[in-house]
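new request in #modeling-help
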Amino acid sequence: MAKINAGVATSHVPAIGAAIDLKKTGEEYWQPLFKGYEYVKEWVKDAKPDVVVLIYNDHASAFDANLVPTFAIATGAEFKPADEGWGPRPVPNVMGHPQLASHIAQSVIQDDFDLTVVNTLDVDHGLTVPLSLVFGEPENWPCKVIPIAVNVVLYPVPSGNRCYQLGKAIRKAVESYDEDLNVQIWGTGGMSHQLQGPRAGLINKDFDNAFLDRIIDDAEGLASMPHINYVEQAGSEGIELVMWLVMRGALHNQVEVKKRFYHVPASNTAVGHLVLENKTSEE
Amino acid sequence: MSLDKPYKNIPGTTIFDAEMASKGFHLNQFCMSLMKAENREKFKADEKAYLDEWPMTEEQKQAVLARDYNAMMATGGNIYFLAKIFSSDGLSFQFAAATMTGMSQPEYAEMMLNGGRKLGSPLNLEGFKNGKD
């Protein structure tokens, strides 16, 4: 049986990808940030996922204004890095897992989560920056990846609770897959940031740290936080944090925190990162 | 019955909702066209002529020509779409964000290094419209 054993949360700021690609990670500006990801790079060598279900959002790369799926699961075999206006990132293509992805789609749709099924999907920084932060710069990514894109660009985005419940449905789907697979779920985006208007540059450390506390120990309560709180307190783009709740919903109620990291700034954004493992006691 | 949209009242902020997306559809699709190198070249060669190929409002076209990002947002642009314009100009997200705050880019970068804009700090709202008025 396949099983979700661990979760990773991380911001996916495009400037982090640019820093990696342009070999700037040693610069004074970036050093504290990359130091925060040294743990996960070692951890993942032992954790060795076969498949990562990667929750991210497309930033007007694969989906234009014509079509905005609230949730989309990618069932293709291979995904190319998107050209976001300055050429695709020089990272390997992302290999999918069509059988498990189709199985998850089948299961969660029957559980009332009406995901859009997409085959060809160019994946942008929202998906590739987390892969780079965790796996570094390998010739090929060491595992399969199932992209699940969440609309957090066009309001209203799905509620925190909807995301959290989808996570639970994904867990159920994975656990009903016959092949023995070590699966991880990653939630990406955030933390506080606003990229537009006179209020651009907003950062809220108190909000972010409370969010990190609660997603560990009070995820269900956190899931009921309305959108307006995110927008008011964490900035218009801080709403991306609802995607972390999909990750959290797919884990056990009790998790062990292997790593917690917070850093300001990466360009316009506060960076948050968690590595969570299921406590083995709960089935 | 009108729907509750409490996010309309957040200062210095335009929320890109379905209503704004409808207003901004052609503006945003024009932005998407700039993801192709040949279109970027056409746009750079004659911006006005390229914009005239799109059924955008005059206000939207003027906002693009002036690189007035707040005005583009107010007429239905979304920042991730508008990013294709400043990327085509070879400019960063931080540059574009700074222009919307009325700060210079160095001032803005300094603010970010010092932990970012604090919640409730005064905003430069001169001439700002959030598209809901």
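bot summary: The first helix of chain A runs from residue 14 to 21.
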